[in-house]
Every structure is written in C-alpha cells, then in structure tokens.
Amino acid sequence: MGKENAMTPKGYLFSAAEAAIKKPGRKDLALIFSEQEAVMSGNFTTNRVKAAPVKLDMKRIRSGRGRAIVVNSGNANACRGEEGMRDALEMTELVSCALGINMKGVYVCSTGVIGTPLPMGRIRPVIPKLTKGMGKSTWDDVAAAIMTTDTFPKVVSRRLKLADRTVTITGLCKGAGMISPLMATMLCFILTDARIARSALDAALSLAVRESFNKITIDGDRSTNDTVLVMANGMARNETVEKGSADFKKFVRALSDVTSALSRMIVRDGEGATKLVEIEVRNAKNTRDAEKAAFSVANSLLVKTAIYGNDANWGRIMAALGHSGISMREEKTDISFGKVRIVLRGLATGKEGEAADVLRQREIRITINLHIGNSSARVLTCDLTEDYVRINAEYRT
Amino acid sequence: MGKENAMTPKGYLFSAAEAAIKKPGRKDLALIFSEQEAVMSGNFTTNRVKAAPVKLDMKRIRSGRGRAIVVNSGNANACRGEEGMRDALEMTELVSCALGINMKGVYVCSTGVIGTPLPMGRIRPVIPKLTKGMGKSTWDDVAAAIMTTDTFPKVVSRRLKLADRTVTITGLCKGAGMISPLMATMLCFILTDARIARSALDAALSLAVRESFNKITIDGDRSTNDTVLVMANGMARNETVEKGSADFKKFVRALSDVTSALSRMIVRDGEGATKLVEIEVRNAKNTRDAEKAAFSVANSLLVKTAIYGNDANWGRIMAALGHSGISMREEKTDISFGKVRIVLRGLATGKEGEAADVLRQREIRITINLHIGNSSARVLTCDLTEDYVRINAEYRT
Predict the structure, then answer these.
(1) A261 & A287 share domain
(2) Which of residues B390 and A96 earns the better pLDDT score?
C-alpha cells in the first residue's frame, strides 16, 4: 500500500541509520541528498509553538535552494529553547561537513516527543555513517525511518511528460497523530527531477497542499513540527517550467496527485483508524462555510465513534452542522451515506439499515447537501476507536 | 455523590413513570409541578439545529411564567420537522388537560436519540398515570428518569436567608455526552421557592450559567436539546428579590453554587471519564484569549488521552496552546500540574515524575500562566478513555 509504484527521480540518493533516539532496534535517522543543487519550496506548521528545526528551515527556505534533508524520528526537538536550536543547527552542520556542502543547503526535520532533549551524544557519531551509506538505502528505508505511530511507510510517485522529457515526482511522508488542517500537515518530502522556476514551485506547492494536506484531519490537533519540503533538481533537463504555462498546469496536476495520494494514506493510517471517511459538503453559502461544516463533522467525536460502530447516526451529523457556525436550515439539508440518502430535507428517509451496510465498508463517503448556495468542500478523516485512546494514553510509556 | 444534601423548596411536586420510550425496564418520563405559578427563566442551546421541545420552550419562556415541566429521556425529539413539533405540543397539552392548568404554562424537554419518531402511542397512556402520581416521587426519581448515559443522578441544593425568610434552591440535571460550551448545556431544572422579579431571575441565571455550564466540555459537541429552566414560585414569601439589591447578590451566589456543583457533577460523570480536570489559564492578553486557550487544551484529544494514561506530556499542552489562535510566547509560558511546575518559561523543569503522581489523582488542576496580560479563565473537562469510544460506538445498538 505504501509502495504504490514508487519511482526515483534522477539524481537523488538516500540513507538511513540507527541512532537509538527514542529506543534502539530501528533506523531513526535518514538523509535525502540531491546530486545537484535543487530549487526548493516549503510549507510549515501554523502552530505558534514551532519546533527548532521548523524555525531553522523557515529561514533557510528563503534562499529557495538546497541539497540535503536530514530527518530524525523519536524526538520532535520542540519546546527546548536555545538548546533545541543549537542541536538543529549542529545536525545540519555535521551533515554539511561530512558531505562537503554549504550548511545553508541542509534542511532538518524532527518528529516525536515534544520537550525531551535530543540525544546528540548518540546522533553525532551516527552522522558519518549516515553520509557514507548514501545510495545504499531506498525510499522505503527513509519512509520507514521517519515513522512514529505510522503502521506503514508512505511513498507515492507520478511520472509526466514535459515536451520530450520524462519528469518524475516522488513524495514520502509520515503522519498518524496530531493531524489537522490549515497547515502543511506532518512531515512530507517531495523530490522531483523537474527543472522549474522557484516562483512556479512555490505556487505549485501551495495549490497542491491546499486541497490535500490542508483538507485532512485525524484528531484536530495541529503539530509543532509539520513540514512539507519539495526539492526540484532539474536533472530531467526539461525546459524550465514557468508559472502559468501549460507545463505548469501539468506539473501541478501531477504534484497534486502525489500530495492527495499521500494525504489519503495518512488518514487511512490515522492512529487506531479502521475506516477512511470522506465528508463532502455541497451547496454551502460560500467556501468558508463549506469547509467549516465539513471540518465540524469530520472532527466530531460523536460522528467518528458512530462510524466506528457502524451506526448510521445522522443526528450527530446534524448536530455537528448546527454548531459549526455556518448558515444552514435543518429543513433544507440532505445527508447521504455512500449512495444511500438517509436524510431528505431534514427528515429521516428510513434507510438506516442500508446506510449501516455502507458503514461496514473500509472507505465511506458522506455527502451533505445544504441547498443554500453553490460552494463545496471535501475533507478526509477517519473513525475514532479504542485504539486511538490506547496509542495516545501509552505513547511515551 | 448525586444526593449532596438535597432539600426540596416549598410547593413543588414530582412524578416519574415508565413509557418504555427507548426500551422497557426503567422510568423515562418525569414531571415537575409547582403548586403556584412560578416566575421562570430559560437558557437554550445555541446549536442552529434545535429540537422541537427547545423551539416550543423558547416561545413559552417569553411569558416568564409557568407551572410544570414534562421531560422524557430515550428520544431527543429532534430533526423530525413538523411531526416533532406536533408531538412536543401534544405532550404539554396532555399534561395541561390532566392537571387542569393552562397549556402555555407547561414546558417540555427531551433527551436521547436524534431523528427517531417519539413513540407517542406509548407516551399518551402514561401521562394520566404521571399526573396522578404527583407527589409520590422525589427529586432523585426525576433525576434518574432523565438520565441517558449518566451513571448517577445529579441533584444539588443550597439554602440561604433573605431577611427572616429561608429560601431553598435545588437543581437537577443530566449530562454525559454532547457537552460543550457557549450554551446552556444539557438538561437542567432549577427550582426555588424564592420570590424574585423576572428580570432579576433572568440576570441571575445568565450570571450563574456563564461560569458553570458554559465553562465545561466533555467532547466539544454541542447538543440540539440543551436546556436550563429555572422556576421560582415565591412560596418562601421573602420580599421580592430585585436586580442589583443585596438579596440579589446573595441569590446569585447561591444559584451559582448550585449550577457550579451540577456542572462539576456532569464533567465527573462524562462518558467514560475517570478524572476531573480543571484547566486554568492565567495572565492572558484578554478574556477571549484566556477562554480560547483553556478550551483548546480542554478539547485536545491528545491532552485528554495523556491525562488518562498518567503521562505528564506537557508538549501536547504547548501544541494545543500554539494552535488555539491566541497571543502567546512559548518562552514566557509556565505550566503546572497541581503544585508541580513542569514548565518554566517554555522549558521543562525535569519534574515529570512528580507531575505523573499528580495525574494519578481523580481531580487534577492544570495551570497555564501565559505572562502576557491580566485575564484568566477556568474550564472543567475530563479525560478521554476507551470507554468513551465504546459508549458512543454502541449508543444505539
């Protein structure tokens, strides 16, 4: 599932190693390296409390360029003050020294527990091993090394033709908890060998993220570390993609495909989740209302637990719509589970049995038609299970 | 716990009966009756989707007067269109006929499943039994009859002296799920024999609700049926309480005591909850920020599951503060669990072991000092457990 035809774009090398950051027994440090300097764009958490690596990357991304990304799991390097920033800087410094590249071209990402010191004593000696091992690991090794509570590595590739050149876009990410909208959610690295102008890459990333990572929610919590970084090293030798061109549109479509597939994987692998749920709100007064309504339903614990229990409890959807603060009229609202219309103009249609059958599937679409305006929105979420509670009650023990 | 010295104010009679509304085997219909017409005030859900009884009561409360309240559990009589309103009206009509009182003085409340027809065929024949049984039941019978997923009935009394008269205020309520702020949460009935002007009663209720029911959250979901009704029949024969007087202040204090104790009981009895958690935010920029921050922490699934797991995972509190949209600075923020300061100016103090001991208690206070302004807020919540999921996944099965 995580390996959906992964293809490697030209000129990228990978490495993964074990630094026993949280505990020994698995690779938890990874490196992504581009043979040529890449054009880069980034998207970072909107949480006011930002981890040190996020703060550092936000500065470095201003250059729009880079060569390498070093990532660790098991520790978020967040809420540690100046010490955290020193550690983040040192990680990039060690990588830049070992590779003989400019430190400003090295990005760093961390994921895991907040507020605990990063064990630099264990990380330092592993960095040379990491850089020496470059090329000996694959996508999947990197995707596995950055996992926290994820149950499978997440990698997606798309190939497109730009004139006579073949361009590859490959993304990998980790998710599982603290997933919520309005930011570049989780850690995601997208590599492409496309040659693209920086402004075009920025625009393409914004467009792709808006309808993928910014439209998923697992628990409504927004992390301190969420980062999406895209590298484009130009090694496909296509004509430079410029904003607004036909090639740009193709590139955005392929990039959106990658981010959508990845965000779907994140939700499917939501902590404790057994079902993927798509909430579609149609004919809202405006886009803001449509999104608010969709997220209110998607984040309702009562809706999520009902779905888990195969209970077509549409009343909880009505209640979630009603307190979302949007313009709505109960007596105009239709609700469908899959193709089964369970509410027509605010009233039960009596098809709860059929709707419960829809809920027994692993992928469910809930459509809400407000019949008030012309705007719509779609949000992906998952059900809420005892396992989510168990995972998060025991996360650090 | 639910019986904390309950005293009955003068002139109120109670009755409870079984109508097998959801299933047989328990009393699920209750009646509260005042021998004399009472001054009344109400507070209703802000959810745009309002149940039929809420809509009806909102109309009737404009008169500021009433004699009786009929309540059923097992069915919310919500999202049923005109049929729902007909049923709500009929319930009050049957009670008014049987008691020989004006129908407009009868209020009705419902709680339970949304969107399912109210079994009027079973309710109709029970109403005469209900009115005939008046005086044969107690507070506790009524409190028990209106329970849904509550595990204990909730009743609180306060007595106060106004000049040489003794006034009693007794409140009863039900809670458990779909509990969230910014409205008169759940069903709550407060009866007093005080003689009070209607404007004074309205003002007193608003003041009392603001710092009690509007400052609790169990799951962030806001119901379609939430109602607080207060009846004051004047049978204590005190001098009429007028707004702004010394007696008014005394009355507000006692009423607030009752609503605070009831809201505490609701949170303690939150679905699946094992712990009562008080989140206090101090020195926020303004009250809005303080409340937003407190609710963001109180509603974070990650914070709630960590508390359940006795894990002093303050990083999740920082993350919840950071995405709450308030003004804050990580490096100014202090966090304490009980008396154990676990974060000082944004950094861990290393007292996680002591903090985990605090979390093992059944009542926990988490204090967050933002050191930015002078406003504060306090919110009550509970932990999130596997049982919450189980209860809500299986609610209708």
Answers:
(1) no
(2) A96
pLDDT in tens, B347-360: 999 998 899 999 99
CA A77 from centroid of its chain's CA atoms: 19
| Residue type for position B334 | D
ipTM at complex level: 0.75
Stretch (H or E) spanning A259: helix A246-268
Same domain for B251 and B287, yes or no, is: no
Q: Is B228 left (phi over 0), alpha (psi -120 to 50) or beta?
A: beta
Interface membership of B4 toward A (CB under 8 Å): no
* Distance to chain B for A30, nearest Cα, Å: 24
For B219-273, write each residue's pLDDT tens digit. Answer: 665 567 778 889 999 999 999 999 999 999 999 999 998 988 888 888 888 778 8
* pLDDT tens-place string over residues A182-202: 332 478 899 999 999 999 999
Q: Which helix (H) or strand (E) holds B73?
A: strand B65-75
3-state helix, strand, coil split of chain A in percent (to 5) is: 35, 30, 35
- B39 exposure class (CB count in 10 Å sphere: 0-12, 13-18, 19+): buried
Selected residues 12-71 of chain A with any CB under 8 Å from a CB in chain B: 46-50
Least Cα distance to B347 among A112, A81, A87, A110 occurs for: A81
Residue A181: the pLDDT is: 36
Q: Domain for residue B1, yes or no?
A: no
Residues A59 and A190 in one domain: yes
Minimal Cβ distance to A319: which of B178, B315, B348: B178
Q: Residues A259-269: pLDDT tens digits?
A: 888 888 888 88
Q: Is A388 on the interface with B (CB under 8 A)?
A: yes
Q: Would the CB atoms of B348 and A116 count as touching at under 8 Å?
A: yes
SS3 B335: strand
Same domain, A264 and A284: no
A363-369, strands of its sheet edge to edge: A347-348, A340-344, A334-337, A363-369, A276-284, A375-382
Taking an 8 Å cut-off on Cβ atoms, the answer to whether B79 and A318 are in contact is yes
CA atoms within 13 A on the CB side of A307: 29
The answer to whether the Cα torsion of B335, B336, B337, B343 is positive or negative is positive
Q: What percent of chain B has pLDDT above 70?
A: 94
- Out of B45, B185, B217, B259, pick the active-site residue: B185
Q: Which of B316, B326, B335, B359 to mutate to test the interface with A (most CBs of A within 10 A)?
A: B316
Task: Name the phi and psi angles at A281, rounded to 5.
Answer: -110, 125
pTM of the full predicted structure?
0.79
Token pair of B18 as six digits: 């079984």
Scanning A305-334 for CB atoms below 8 A from B yields: 305-306, 308-309, 311, 313-316, 318-323, 326, 328, 330-331
Chain B residue with minimal CA distance to A81? B347
CATH code for the domain of B371: 3.10.20.340
| B244, B142: one domain | yes
Q: Which of A47, A224, A396 sits opposite B311 (nearest CB)?
A: A396
The tally of domains found in chain A comes to 2
